[in-house]
Write a structure and sequence with these properties.
heterodimer, B: 5-stranded mixed beta sheet, disordered N terminus
Chain lengths: 229, 615
Amino acid sequence: MNPGIVRLGVLGAAFLAAVLGLPAPVLAPLGCLGLLVTADLAAGASRRDGIDRLLVGAGFLLCAAVLGGLGLALLPGGLTRRGWACYWLAVGLALLVFGHRGTPARIRPTRRWIAPGVAAALVLVAFGLSALDSRRHGSGPLALWLVERGSAGVTVGVGGGDTDHGERLRILLADQSSGTTTWASAPFSPAGRTARLMAVPVPGHGRWRVELVPLGAAEPVRELVLDGS
Amino acid sequence: MITDTLPARHRVEARPARVTPVVLAVTAGLLLQAWVGYRARHGGTAPGALFWASLLLLYLPVAWRVLARAPGACSPPPEPGSGGARPGLSRRGQAGLALLLGEGLLASRVLLYPNGFVYHDEIIHRNTLRLIEQSHHLFTPNSLLPASPYYPGLELATDAVHQITGLSAHLSGVVVLLLARAVMMLALFRIVELVSGSARVASVAALVYAANPQFLMFNSQFSYQSLALPLALLTGYLFATRASGSIVPAVAAGAATAVTHHLTSIAMLAVLAGWWVVSRPRWCARVPGLGPLSLVTLAMVAGWTAVAGPRILPYLGELGTRTVSALRALTRGGSDHTLFSDAAGTSASLWERAISVASVLLICLCLPAAVLSLRRWFPRRSAAAVVLVAAGLAYPLIPAGHLTIATSEVAERSAGFLFVGLGFVLGAWYAPRRLPPLVATAAAGVVFVGGTVLGSGPDWLRMPGGYLVEAENRSVDADNVAAAQWLRDHLPPDGRVFTDRVNGLLAAAIGRQHTLTNLADGVDLAETAGVLLDGPRAKDVRVVAANRIDYLIADRRLATSLPHVGVYIDDGEPDAAHHDEPPPPAALTKFDAVSGAQRIYDNGSDRIYDLRKLR
């Protein structure tokens, strides 16, 4: 098939995917392909060798993004997905029509690519596993917070995915000045990442502590300090 | 064209050496880095030996392949311009190794922090990117660093990838960094190759460049210099290889540099001007087009600096003032910098100190011999070579700059430029020599590890691990991130937040709040820092009202240690860089007792106070 037609097809598909806002699993490969085609066109396929083609192609993408972004930012719509899609399509078409016509880049699948391919796949797997592990390790702590204030008191939230308070908890309401507990919730278990909302009858005067206390313990593990009014 | 240099005749060897083992070794190094990250995240301590072993697995195989002569090869040393590659490695293979090394070292950083940007400058630029994504326009104020929105090149390139591929902002930033690193290594390779006429000199130069103190850490970060430096080199390359006499491609790359980073664009201008000046005398060959390119670059840099003026000039002025003051103090025998130690007293190990010193000594010992051997270049009347040699000879300024805090910052940042020249000088010196490969590779390893130790700071800065007080990456933990996410999810945007250094970064970049800073808001930290760091004071409420503070984030862990970067909040706070004790625990809970102040969030570490009623 004519390489020009193929390139046009890729540029058009990447444009449509971006404008239609397709989900990332579809948009990412199409968008990357579109950028690769643009870089290859910019490299000119002229008399340059592989090193220069890679250098010019990558450099062109970066410069075009920076300078094109400056231009897009001046437009009323600014830097939107649609604006970027139109810009890259225009750049690709201009290169396709006015750019150097030379030998298009050919990547021949030979045995020499097996080792780099395996290496790249291994690194990608390592990256994926690191990302998963890092995300799991970084889950948030147990937290207590004020959600809103109403006529009958306040609503507080309890949540957090990484709690060592596996036991049951309860919320106490205490007068800050006297320390007297005036209200206690029923015991409950933390709901992990999902926030548990609870109404607490904070009076409309004075200053109050809302405490999150493990069942059977005396000291709170989390605490809010609220004005009554 | 660089008409004053010899043409590179690219000889492709009949029996190219295999690079597959090198690729596999680099892959093994990356897998080991991923394992290091896993161990550091779960163990809470950094397995230093494993970290360095994995880095050496990335560097040494490439060094061996570049520096070693192929078995049985006995060709005479190549003269400058002879085409370069020794038997055993094709020119393309040498360029490929330079690329592999650069990308491999960058990938090692991504593997340690695969889910987000965690360093100070990275979070600042992530915030600028967020502001662009939200407003769809440029120049939205970023209180973390007011100059950043006026140099939006990195963020624009990242936004382009983000919008067109749908990848997350972080992954898009990584893609941009990978592209920039490819441009960096290949432009460096080609420039040195063009000037020296030898691909071998170029590949040794790339090896030396990778040992520069900023290469592994600072210039791998999502920060504007990481993109600007490659763009500046691309400008030089496009000018040197321009077709049909046009300087337009170089001007375009120069323009992209000018809007990406102030210091890099100024340095680029200085190099172009220096090159032009050197090419003026009769003994040097003229470089057509260099004068016009220098003038256009001057206009672009001056024009953009004028646009950014009110934000950038105070920033640069402060940097200059600090540097001059430090130099003055140094001439009087005073230095504020303790070598190999951070502000909290964490010291580098003995072997790290030894290898850093060895690295500097090794380069300084090689430099005179290298310069003497370079006299062969003078008959070639190469102005470009003169500029590169001058940059290389300035190398001693980098270790010398470490004598004070202010000059160490300037000296280290200049490494990105000076090592281009140093790579050329050492590459041209080494290329025709017959050093035993083992010795040469070992020396390269020492230079690499020593340079990296010198530029990467203390141990904790290099990899994940348990929480440390005000320690950049090590302070960005689940608790602080959770507090910032709560700000984003539960409070209206742009509330005025006062807090410590790391929570301030996160409150802006993740929490979408306006973090109060002395740079953007003129906050007088001499007085205001006490709101967070001092025990109860009579004037606290007045200071809160005067600075219109909406929310205070108090991390109770601040009371457990001295700050590892020297400050709890920012320069200007009392005892900055000279704290001798942490704030009292009462400082971080004192607003519990202040009528009108409410603690509205508590995750065990971070407490968020609503102070709006005090205003």
